[in-house]
Each structure stands twice: as structure tokens, then as C-alpha cells.
Amino acid sequence: MSEVPTFDARILLEGARIVAARVDEDLIVREVVGDWCEVAVGEDVRDTVPALIGMEDELSQELPYVQLPFVSLGMSHEQPVAISVKRDWETQSLWILLRDVSEEASVQERLVHQHNALSLAHRELAAARDAALTADKAKTRFLANVSHELRTPLNVVIGGASILRKQRDKPLPNDDVITFSNDIHDSGILLLQLVDDLIDLSRAETGNLTIYEEWCNPSVIIDEMVRLSRGLPEAEGIEIVYLPNENVPEMYADPRRVKQILLNLLSNAVKVCSPGSRIQVETEVLGSGDFKITVRDNGPGMSQANLAIALEPFGQPNAETRARGTGLGLAIVAKLADLHQAKFDITTELGKGLAASTSFPAMRLSSNTG
Amino acid sequence: MKAHKVIVIGDFGVGKTSLIRRYVLDVFSDQYRATLGVHLYKHSDVIPVNGTEQQIKLVLWDIEGAPLPGEQMMRYSLGASGAIVVGDLTRPDMIEPMRRAADMIEARLPGRPIGFAFNKYDIAPAPNDSDIAALKDRYGALITCTSAKTGDAVPTLFRNLTSLILGKKTGAL
Predict the structure, then answer these.
(1) Which CATH number fits the domain A106-205, given the four candidates 3.40.50.10190, 3.20.20.140, 1.10.287.130, 3.40.190.10?
(2) Mean pLDDT across the stretch A345-353?
(3) CA torsion sign, B21 to B22 to B23 to B24?
(4) Of A114 and B23, more confident
(5) Which of A209, A274, A289, B48 has the highest count of CB atoms within 10 angstroms of its CB?
(6) Which of A54, A68, A80 is the closest to B80 by Cβ?
(7) Is pLDDT of B122 > 70?
(8) Could you give the CA distance from residue A271 to residue A309 in angstroms, rounded to a whole number?
(9) Residues A297-324: tens digit of each pLDDT
(10) C-alpha A237 chain-centroid distance
(11) Tell me, what's the pLDDT at A39?
(12) Nearest to A360 by CA among A262, A280, A246
């Protein structure tokens, strides 16, 4: 039978800032070697070394494995210690070894600081790179969309004009002349609208879209826009109404931009509704004091996936409306609402219509309503 | 009275030390200083257990941060009665390291209660409902959005976890 080596704490302690405490099975200190830190005979070692709390099961093992390289008390600034445990086979007791690791700790602390700073910088750079790549992709997609949207009406203008030019050689029937002229006119209007929308969106993105605020009456604006939208070519057979509320406050806003918000929302509703549908504009002063204008239709509505598409610039989930708009309307509405610190919100469900609301903050409203 | 060991783990810079210092000392500092190894905090509190107020003693282990649990973290977790896994709400990729840390706890300390602390709630929104539901389902864990800076929900986090620890010991849970 091989001899089990005896643990001799004194040999270990030579020249080192270390304390060894021999404890019994109840973890009461029976002997202390070294005076570097206060561990008193007769005390529970866990009072001085709380790191041993919870480790009773491990310490009761024949070969306990406790190796804690850097432990310090966070409430004071005591030097960190390395804690380890050895069993003394002769006395069957445990030796708790505490070693001062202040010097290693100060070196390691600097290394940890450097490592953490580098890791954080790396993460920030990676996030910035991802954001730049996403922005670059969005810009490319946007330019491709702009090119496409410009080409479609331009082709109509060029094609129609080419046919009309050939009249000198071969006159066209009057109806065809009128049709081609209308197509050229409508495409020109669409182009102008697209360019205006692009300018607005670009200004809003760069923070250069200015609003000219004044006290205005939302009821008057809504009424005007409702009447205007009734005149849209697609509005035939659609009932468009304003349900005035008695408590419509005066509002400090840019009336031209509020009109633009309403007209965009109304014309979007008109485009998706079929004859016999109803579009109504409602107003409400919310409990928070905010003023909410809602354009509600009983048209086809849309799924949440299509709504996400519709909110993107050039996003037109419906192929039929694609030919009749720029796809920038909702993006511009959202920007214009934002410029007024208003909240823009859409609720919709496939087959159950759509409600687009703009809630202007209470601070923009006059205190006297009615 | 027996003291309970609770380890607090997570990536570096997520606010582990700040959460503990807010709970134990009711202080907060904006100055970030990385924890090296482990800092121990002894703390006494009174919490309700099975309808009665009970005095408890905790030893909180503020363990050096790491993106993923390593050998060091496992060594320090020995004998813990419960664990708090801290994540930083401002970091978009916070959930996966928290899961990995919780997996380590489950493997090393089976059956011990786990609390997830989503910290920095004063400057970032709560995680989405599906992430919270997934963590609850997977680990049966406490989920708390905390702010070490304002102190919001910090005592609640530690007290609820301690209640779970005591509940398990008394068989109430």
C-alpha cells in the first residue's frame, strides 16, 4: 500500500502571502498558520470566508474540489484572494488556503479592461457596418424603384406623343386622339406628383422639410379635402363623408401639410374601394387630450404582411393600385405626422376595411374646444 | 440562520455589479469598472414566504462577465441555491448569451431557480412577448425588467428569486 503524503501547510507558506486554516467537519477553525489575514481559531470559517457558504456538500467529499482564483468582498476594498481546499489525510481535517493575489489581480484587471473595451468597440463597429450595409441596400432598392416609377409614365408620354406626331401622314380617329391626349396628360400629372413626392420625402429624410405653422380649423380642412376627394376620377360611386364632431379644437399646424396628409389618405382609400363603398372621416379628442383624425373605409382591407409593404416607400401590395399611385403616399404621411409630433397609425384586417389615424398632440390644440 | 448563495452572471457590461450594489447598498454609479473574478456581497433582507415575513441572509456572487459561460463561471457556481442571469436590453443580440448561461445553470445546478433580469429598462424597451414566453416555457424562470440606475424592480428581482429558493426548500413550490 502506497503511503499517502501528509499535507504540510508550513512548507507551502514559506515566502508567500498566504494563510492556511485547518477546519473540522463543522467548518470550525482549529488551527491557523500564517498571519496575513484574520482567521481566528474557534470561529466558523465561513464568517471570514463567505465564499465557502453553499459549498458544504463539496467540502464534505473525500477529495473536495474548490479552486476559486479571484475572490474579494465587494462592499469593502479588501485585496482579492485565491481560495483552495486540501484534505489533511493524517488528521482527516480540511485546510482552507487563502493566498493574496493582489498583484496578479492588478495586471489581470488591466487586461480585462482592455479586452472588454476592444470587445465593445468590435461590437459597435459590427453594428455600424450592418447599419451601413442595410442603408446601402435600401438606397439601391429605392433608386431602382424611382427609375421604374419614372419610366412607366414616361413611356406612356413618349409612346402617345409618337403616335400623335404621325397624324400628319395618317390622321387618327378623334376618339383615339382624345384617348392618347388623356393618357399623356394623366401620365404627366403622375410624373409631377411622383417628383413632388420624391422631393418631399427627400427633404423629410434629410430634415429639410419645413412646416409653416399657424392656428387653423381642422374641420374646415377636412371638409375641403373630403369635397376635393369626391372629385377624384376613381371616386365615382363611392360615398365619402365627414362626420363632424362638436368638439373640434383649433390646431397649431401647417394647414397645407395637414391637407396633404388627408388627401393622401383619402385618395388611397378611394383607390382601393369599389363603387358602393363608404369612406368616412372622423375626429375625436382622446382622453390624453390628443386630437385624432381617422380616415376609415369599408374596402378590402389588407393583411399585416401587406400593411408592412404598404408602409415602405414605393410599397404597393395591390397590383391594381400600382398603376394609379406613386407608392410614396403613406411614407410621406408618416413623415408629415412626425414633423407635427403626431402619431400615425393604421388598423386593418383583410376583408374588413382600413382605418388610418393621425393623432396630433394635445400641446398643439387650443384649450377652448367647440 | 443559513445563508443562501446566489450567483449573478451574464456578459460584461450588462449591469450585474450595478444591480447587486443597488439592492445591497442602494447606490448607483455611471462609472463602469469591470469585475475581476468574483466579488461577494453579504446581505440580509425580510421577505414574505408562505404568507409570513421571514428574515433571510444572502451571499451574492458578482461573477466576472463573459459573453458565454466558461470554466471559471462554472467553478464559481458551485453550491449556489439560485442564479440571476442578466442581459442588457440595449443589445440586440442579448437573448442567446442569456440562454447559454441558463443552460449552464440547469446542467450544473439542476432544479435551482433562475431569474432573468433584463437590465437598462430605463433606456430601452422590454423584450418582445414571444421571447419572454419562450424563456418562461423553457426554464420556468422569473422574468424581470430592471433598471439598476433608477432602482426599478431591483429588490423585487432578488426577493422573488429568494422566495423561490425558500419555497423549493420548504416544498411549497
Answers:
(1) 1.10.287.130
(2) 90
(3) positive
(4) B23
(5) A209
(6) A54
(7) yes
(8) 17
(9) 999 998 888 888 777 776 666 655 544 5
(10) 41
(11) 81
(12) A262
Average pLDDT, chain A: 83
Question: pLDDT tens digits for B62-99?
Answer: 999 988 888 888 889 999 999 999 999 998 889 999 99
Indicate yes or no: CB of A57 within 8 angstroms of CB of B80.
no
Edge-to-edge strand ranges of the sheet holding A354-360: A239-243, A278-285, A291-297, A354-360, A343-348
Position B64: which residue type? E
User: What pLDDT, on a 0 to 100 scale, did the predictor assign at position B42?
Assistant: 92
Mean pLDDT of A115-141: 82
Residue A7: predicted pLDDT: 52
The verdict on domain A214-369 having CATH code 3.30.565.10 is yes
Percent of chain A with pLDDT over 70: 89
Strand partners, A358: A293, A344
Element (H, E) at A110: helix A102-165
* Confidence at residue A228, expressed as pLDDT on a 0 to 100 scale: 86
User: In sequence order, what are the residues at sequence separation of 6 or more whose Cβ sits closer than 8 angstroms to the Cβ of residue B85?
Assistant: B9, B10, B98, B101, B102, B105, B114, B115, B116, B117, B141
Set of chain B residues whose Cβ sits within 8 Å of the Cβ of A71? 37-40
Is pLDDT at A190 greater than 70 in this prediction? yes
Chain A residues contacting B, CB < 8 Å?
A: 46, 50-51, 53-58, 66-75, 80, 105, 108-109, 112-113, 116, 119-120, 123, 127
Interface test with B, best of A26, A45, A53 (most B CBs within 10 A): A53
pLDDT of residue A347: 93
Joined together, the cell numbers standing for residue A109 give 484587471
Residue with the larger pLDDT of the pair A35 and B152 = B152
End-to-end CA distance of chain A: 103
Nearest CB partner across the interface for B76, out of A58, A68, A108: A68
Residues near A70 by beta carbon (within 8 Å), at least 6 away in sequence: A80, A81, A82, A101, A104, A105, A108, B36, B37, B38, B64
Cα–Cα distance, A11 to A281 (Å, whole number): 91
Confidence band of B170 (pLDDT split at 50, 70, 90): very low
Domain chopping of chain B, boundaries: 3-170
> What residue spans define the domains of chain A?
9-100, 106-205, 214-369
* Distance set, CA A251 to CA A157, A363, A366 (Å): 42, 9, 6
What are the E-state strand segments in chain B? 3-10, 38-49, 52-63, 82-88, 114-119, 142-145
At the fourth CATH level, which superfamily is domain A9-100? PAS domain (3.30.450.20)
Count of alpha carbons within 13 angstroms of residue A128, beta-carbon side: 6
CATH number for B3-170 (one of 3.20.170.30, 3.65.10.10, 3.40.50.300, 1.10.10.10): it is 3.40.50.300
Distance in Å, alpha carbon of A54 to nearest chain B alpha carbon = 5
Would you list the DSSP string of A182-244? HHHHHHHHHHHHHHHHHHHHHHHHTT------EEE-HHHHHHHHHHHHHTSGGGTT-EEEEE-
